[in-house]
Design a protein that fits this description.
CATH superfamily of the largest domain in chain B: Ribosomal protein S6/Translation elongation factor EF1B
Strand order of the largest sheet of chain A: 1-2-4-3
Structural class of chain A: alpha+beta
Strand content of chain A: 15-25%
Order of helices and strands of chain B: HHHEEHEHEE
Number of helices of chain A: 3
Structural class of chain B: alpha+beta
Shape of chain B: rod-shaped
Order of helices and strands of chain A: HHEEHEE
Distance between the termini of chain A: 122 Å
Largest sheet of chain A: 4 strands, antiparallel
Radius of gyration of chain B: 37 Å
Number of strands of chain B: 5
CATH topology of the largest domain in chain B: Alpha-Beta Plaits
Strand content of chain B: 15-25%
Oligomer: heterodimer
Chain lengths: 170, 177
């Protein structure tokens, strides 16, 4: 009877030990997980703050600067291709202006590639020769004379206009 | 006594199960947090590398000898004072008188596609002014204007010749961001 009682007490002791051991393991596990969670949350917050506050702003600023430079480089590459020279039209006019002709006024629209001039010829023959020259020029298009008026001393005033190809000013 | 042992054993098993049941989602949460922190760490490292890389790119671009030329040709700002100084200097150097009235008007480039594609769209600054002088001087002025480092595009030229000097009205476009 005594032996049986002792045996039962031993089993009880083992079960009680196991009970407390399990309880302790559980408590320590919770504690460990709780500390880990807190530490990880702190790290997460730190990383998020670092990413947001410093790096992102700096990167955005640098990206903007680089994008601007890239855009400038792109445009700078296009410019020489699209560039035209307004001075070329004056060379062209000088080359094709005959003696006895004087330009009084003019308007050149480089965007529309159109010219309007008012000129004066020393005599009718000079005017006729000048008009012939302009009519024959391949570089100009839609050549038209709008008004011719005879002045004193045989001078002739005339207004004319034409359009030109881009090649003329390239 | 046997009953007591059974009750204790059941209680032990119950507590173990309950404990595991409670720990499992908690442990899962911690695992997820670990993954998040790791991914954030990787993101930060990647950003640091990227920052380093774009810093190098920016430095290289800045070192490029063509860079200052582009900055002058297509500056970030309209630079009104530079334009005015340039026009005044070149007009005087070529014996021309710059008009007392110079007007500026801004507009965006016509290409809508380009404007939408890039946040940095090129803007046009239209400058209207006139110069008084002789034809040869005007030609020199025009030549210097067209060969200048700042990119100018002549849009319109209008002139009239009263007696000696003639007045030339010009509309010129300059570009900026």
């Amino acid at each position: 009877m005594e032996e049986k009682f002792k045996k039962e007490t031993k089993t009880q002791k083992i079960i009680t030990f196991l009970f407390f051991a399990t309880l302790l393991v559980l408590i320590f596990s919770f504690l460990f997980l709780f500390i880990s969670q807190k530490s990880l949350e702190k790290k997460k917050k730190e990383y998020q703050e670092k990413i947001e506050a410093t790096k992102t702003k700096e990167i955005r600023e640098l990206e903007q600067k680089i994008n601007l430079i890239q855009s400038q480089l792109r445009e700078a590459e296009k410019i020489p291709k699209e560039k035209y020279w307004a001075q070329e039209i004056f060379k062209f006019l000088e080359e094709n202006k005959l003696k006895g002709i004087k330009f009084i006024s003019g308007k050149i629209d480089f965007e529309q590639r159109k010219c309007e001039f008012s000129a004066e010829a020393s005599d009718f023959l000079s005017l006729a020769k000048q008009l012939k020259v302009f009519e024959k020029l391949a570089e100009i298009k839609n050549f038209s004379v709008s008004e011719v008026s005879f002045e004193k001393e045989g001078k002739v005033k005339f207004d004319f206009s034409f359009s030109f190809d881009e090649d003329l000013i390239k | 006594m046997r009953e007591r042992e059974i009750i204790l054993l059941v209680l032990l098993i119950l507590i173990a199960f309950l404990g595991l049941y409670a720990i499992f989602p908690f442990s899962q949460k911690v695992q997820d947090l670990k993954k998040e922190v790791l991914s954030l760490k990787q993101e930060m490292e990647a950003k640091e590398k990227y920052l380093q890389k774009i810093k190098e790119i920016y430095d290289n671009l800045n070192k490029n000898e063509i860079f200052p030329l582009i900055q002058t040709a297509l500056p970030e700002k309209p630079d009104y004072s530079d334009i005015l100084a340039f026009l005044y200097k070149k007009a005087s150097e070529n014996g021309l008188i710059l008009s007392s009235k110079i007007s500026f008007s801004s507009k965006k480039t016509e290409s809508l596609e380009e404007n939408l594609a890039s946040p940095f769209s090129l803007k046009i600054l239209e400058i209207s002014f006139s110069v008084i002088g002789n034809y040869q001087n005007f030609k020199n002025f025009l030549r210097e204007l067209e060969f200048s480092q700042r990119f100018f595009r002549v849009k319109e030229i209008e002139w009239s010749l009263p007696k000696e000097n003639f007045e030339i009205k010009m509309v010129v476009e300059a570009f900026h961001y």
